[in-house]
Design brief:
- The chain has about 375 residues and is α/β, with parallel strands linked by helices.
- The protein is built from eleven helices and twelve strands.
- Helices cover about 30% and strands about 20% of the residues.
- About 55% of the residues are buried.
- The strands form three sheets. Strands 1, 2, 3, 4, 5 and 8 form a six-stranded mixed sheet that branches. A four-stranded mixed sheet has the order 9-12-11-10, with helices on both faces.
- Helix 1 packs across helix 2, helix 3 crosses helix 11 and helix 5 crosses helix 9.
């Protein structure tokens, strides 16, 4: 991927909605198709030019990529692949698209992620015998609580203890994140990024972004006992949403007049020990830094983290020596929620807005997308504005 340039020339997403909320009756193809169509239009790419489609998804089953590709008007002959790397699925799908093109296997690939937890099929455990009653099972095989994204509460609590991160600090981060999101919305930084699925105000803004009251946050009960620091106000909750990008080869990029784009530079992935799941994206970033081959870390000025909780975001800033203002300056997953397989693709859409759509004239050049996945896996990717 370093030797053969690959370019992301368009990035779009839906507003992120609560389970049973904004997208409550929309299936994955209903969420994905309008976003794909908008991204292709932005890129100036006709649907019949697309060679392949790769989507991250954790809950729909039966290779939803093929269904979504056909619903989006992509060619019948285009290969359609579903990636399930849990919360890292959307980012991995985009990196897989870049690898396909870098290897010369395709010239134009649409990639990203979609999750409709509101309409996802239920899972039922198979009884051991005919006389046992079937029971519902949750989709997370690693036992993460329903409100968390990909990291058990106990791991986040352990990280808070190790780094002495207080409940007050976490609540302050959550409040600041909501304020940042409100400022970004007022400054119209999400315009061009979010594809409203209907012509209403609600469809153009993330549903959970609001203005929580500090006293209300302080009154929330801890999730892990009386001495716990995590609450429903300072973690990211599961949501519905979709995000997609258009990835093209260098030849296609030149043919189309070298439009402003993001170039995937390098990425790093690894797993961490059980009990340390909250540190997975931090560990992945450390590994990424170790592979930069002389590139100055100070040139990376944009960080998008799909944080499981405020603890994780605060810890990342502390352990990597980052300025808080550089990480999720328009609000993160604590504000907008966590749409599982789409979360990593949302990060890339956010970076595209920060580095290409809105900040090109400000000189920002490099940005990182990072997140953890179920089971203690971390994934981080470095992108360059060109």
């Amino acid at each position: 991927m370093k030797s053969v340039p690959v370019f992301i020339v368009a990035a779009k997403r839906t507003a992120i909605g609560r389970i049973g909320g904004l997208h409550r009756v929309r299936r994955v193809e209903d969420l994905a198709a309008p976003v794909i169509e908008a991204a292709l239009k932005d890129a100036g790419v006709a649907p019949d030019e697309v060679d392949e489609f790769i989507v991250g998804n954790c809950t729909a089953g039966d290779n939803p990529a093929r269904l979504i590709a056909l619903a989006s008007g992509l060619p019948v002959a285009a290969m359609a692949t579903t990636v399930d790397q849990q919360c890292a699925s959307g980012l991995e799908a985009i990196l897989a698209a870049a690898r396909r093109i870098a290897a010369g296997e395709a010239s134009i690939v649409v990639a990203g992620g979609v999750e409709s937890l509101s309409t996802a099929p239920w899972r039922i455990a198979k009884p051991r015998n005919l006389f046992q009653t079937p029971h519902f099972i949750r989709s997370d095989p690693f036992g993460a609580p329903p409100m968390a994204e990909h990291v058990p509460h106990t791991s986040c609590e352990a990280l808070a203890r190790r780094l002495s991160i207080s409940r007050e600090e976490q609540d302050a981060w959550a409040l600041a994140s909501h304020a940042r999101a409100a400022t970004a919305r007022d400054a119209r930084r999400f315009v061009g990024e979010i594809v409203p699925l209907k012509s209403t105000t609600e469809e153009a803004r993330d549903q959970s972004a609001g203005a929580p009251d500090p006293d209300d946050l302080a009154d929330l009960e801890p999730l892990c006992g009386d001495r716990g620091t995590l609450t429903t106000g300072n973690i990211s909750a599961l949501h519905d949403g979709a995000a997609f990008v258009v990835v093209i080869s260098e030849a296609e990029w030149k043919k189309r007049g070298r439009p402003p784009a993001l170039r995937p530079v390098l990425n790093a992935a690894l797993g961490v020990e059980p009990g340390h799941e909250a540190e997975a994206p931090i560990a992945a970033l450390h590994k990424l830094y170790g592979r930069m081959n002389g590139l100055d870390r100070s040139t990376i000025t944009a960080f998008e983290l799909s944080e499981a909780s405020a603890v994780q975001a605060i810890a990342l800033c502390r352990q990597l020596g980052l300025n808080d203002a550089a990480v999720n300056p328009d609000g993160g997953a604590v504000v907008r929620g966590h749409p599982l397989g789409a979360s990593g693709a949302v990060l890339v859409a956010r970076l595209f807005s920060r580095l290409v759509r809105h900040e090109e004239k400000r000189g920002a050049r490099y940005g990182v997308a990072a997140l953890g996945a179920n089971g203690g896996l971390g994934l981080a990717a470095l992108f360059e504005r060109v």
